[in-house]
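Meet today's protein:

…
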Amino acid sequence: MREEKHLLRATVSFSSRYHNGTAVRLVCLAEHHISVGEGLPFGRLLPCSAHLPLGEANIHVWEEWAGLGQLEDYLSFLEYLLWVFTPLAIVFILPFLIVIFLYLSILFLHVYKRKNQLREAYSNNLWDGARKTLATLWDGHGAIWHGYEIHGLEKIPDEGPALIVYYHGAIPIDYYYFLATVIIQKGRTCHSVADHFLFKVPGFKLLLEVFSVIHGPQEECVKALRNGHLLGISPGGVREALFSDETYPLLWGKRKGFAQVAIDSKVPVIPMFTQNLREGFRSLGTLRFYRWVYERFRLPIAPIYGGFPVKFRTYLGDPIPYDPKLNAAELAEKVQQAVQALIDKHQKIPGNILRALLERFQRERKED
């Protein structure tokens, strides 16, 4: 009874400060009801065994009445959601940074074009300075973010044609770094073959033109090689970008057009692969829905996530010389085996993001 009276006193004191009518009503209730809290307003009452001072009791009753306890639970839930979804947001946002970087490159080209309009009539190579500037930017990005290395660059001829065949990552950012290195160290622009959808992306036309990107008819490829240019192509293309995974399967199918191009041009084929490429960026294309959309509508809408600063090492294999005895199917098989050999030699299967991150701190360079 002493604890009950203490509790009622605290409640009456609180009520009397704000509602005199309520205080009188509580006193009356206290005279008729012995059980604690029966008929009392303002929600749950304090445990009397705590023997709280009157001020603390008043504060607690006010918090209960205002619902501050529920607000605290709500804020804790929001904090939990933030903790869960922040990493997911980061890995999906980083790929968009690459797209932003591409658009910044396009913006630079437009500015450069306007600045040099008066010089266009007096220059045979208007875009050479722009290409070298962008190559420097991409080369710096690769060095800083991925510690990018290229092994076997001496296998790229200083002059004359060659066909470079490479494994296609979810985002072929390694190929951008390769192009930049060739421009800077070899002083050459490597022509490239890209999927048709890339030519439909708003604003990309100028960038593709300046860096000699074509959509892939065999006649144009042969023409570029016969004119003495380097040409890069990924037989796996968008399919390999979307549906390959950390086990690095080559999804070339029965494609042999690239081999026929090499035969018609009578040029060597140089295989290329970049270590940890799938640990930098990964695709959700392995999910059935995205595969169905691509197969049905040819829309490459599978989300790409990542942007992790893993170690990138590009390896160039020994050139496969032109052999008139080989047909397109045989040459395609030989090239695929050469790329697969680079994967088997330089990539740990399955790929691991943490391991690839730790390789950034390795001081000794791996053997080629």
Observations:
- The two ends are 87 Å apart (CA to CA).
